[in-house]
What does this fold into?
Amino acid sequence: MAQMSMDLEFSSPLEGTLRLSGNFGELRGSHFHAGLDIKTNLSIGKPVYAAADGYVSRVKVAHFGYGKALYLTHEGGFSSVYAHLDRFAESIQEYIKETQYKKEQFQVELFPSQDKFVFKRGDLIGYSGNTGSSGGPHLHFEVRDPQSRPLNPLSYGIQIDDAHAPQPTALRWYPVSNSGLNLEEEGQNLALTPINDHEFLAETLETSGWIGFGLGVYDKQDGSANKNGVYQMRCSLNGSMVQDIVFDRISFDETKYMNRHMDYLHYQERKQRVQKLFRSSNNPLGILKSLEGDGFVEINPGAAYTYTIELYDFNRNRTLITVPIVGVEKSDKTKEQSWENGPDAKNQRAELIEIPHSAATSWSEGNYSVFFPKECFYESTALSLSVASEQLLLDQDRYPLFKPIKITYRGDHLGEDDLAHAYIARLDQYGKPIHQNTSRSGSVLQASVSTLGKYGVFFDRTPPSISMKAPDEGQWYSTAKKLKITIKDSESGIADYRATINDKFILMEYDYKTNSLTYDFSDAVISEAAHNLKVVVLDNAGNSATFERLFYRKAND
It folds into this structure.
């Protein structure tokens, strides 16, 4: 485990007992969670404190992602991150706002000099919030090493009360075929029977050959109902350890391998995350210690085995899973049954097109063409590809992409007006088009996408909507502290916006979760009583809408 320089430890960034809604390393979307999500009792504005002596090395304000985030650098090059903030400490807030008005844009990223903002452990640096892609009010807190690799904060002084042992949700096993490809398609469940609250017995597995296991698991901490990630999984066969998975450090370069570590197909079918207890090909994750055979085990006919999984949280609460295995000769029936839990039988997926792992490939039909770059999948993968009713069918979302693939649509048959409003979209499970970042060159549309599924070309001719409840036209509005506007676009989505009063830029904060723009009158941009507000909003298909309103406010208020 990495050691802090001079035994540096971090203190709590919030007052009181810490409760978690998410912990380090748990599986999120298509990445591993890089820190701790600390609860704020669903409130915004909790004081956030520097977890160690240091200086502000980076400040970022964005609509998505971490929202308003602060980065402190500490002794030895280690750093801490505080994300989804509502606002910063006053000195930092003034520095950011000055830059935002200078650049006339809300989203900014700054790298102050080392001596500009220096803080001691426990100094106020900001206030908790719900900005960016946060799913609710909380503080996202990270510790990073000098190479900016996220570390488990619990290893460096952050303490969480936890008397609950981890709990399994699913156990799966995977026979290794001769090809060794798409192992998930042959995965099968094993029933688990609880012996007590920290011991489980699996049904007896009868098989032979090389196999691997996968596990769905969560851990709870005291004072929280959230089902968070586990810290360690130790796997042994007949007492000899074959795999040790420890969530101690995950670099951002590695996090894209999360979908390789997870049984992606099972998740798409059951919405249940199962972690592989073996190292698949093209998976360099450092959390897998890979002691023997990359975590795979060999089962010989006529022999009996005991496979065990020990689960630990950081506080060393332990759960034991025991899997009895009997080695038997495989029969043709056994081989056929290995597909019974798959989404389709092999013979139902005819006319598959193989996408090799080691070479780039192109495919086209109708007005569509698709470019698959080298190593776009984690392994060679056979796909069902077709075009029907001007929709592109890229199989189903069964296999994770390691690199984006490029969709090209030739729109020679479209008129200029159609092309001006056209975009490529992915259809969700309900058939709703989800805008993909689309570029256009002449009559050719292109989009890079990171998910298989159904795609099409859609046309958005409807401009965004802009509305404001108060003030009314010509109304005095002197007591309000903020001005709020609602902006929406139900098709291609909001791309950009700009607001002015009396032709002077005003800083409006966009919250996509509430479709709102907010201006703080304390910015004191306008000194006249008459306020001629103008808001222009652009969507992703080039449609624009303009909103104007005159209201009055006491001068210099």
Remarks:
- The first strand starts at residue 20 and ends at 22.
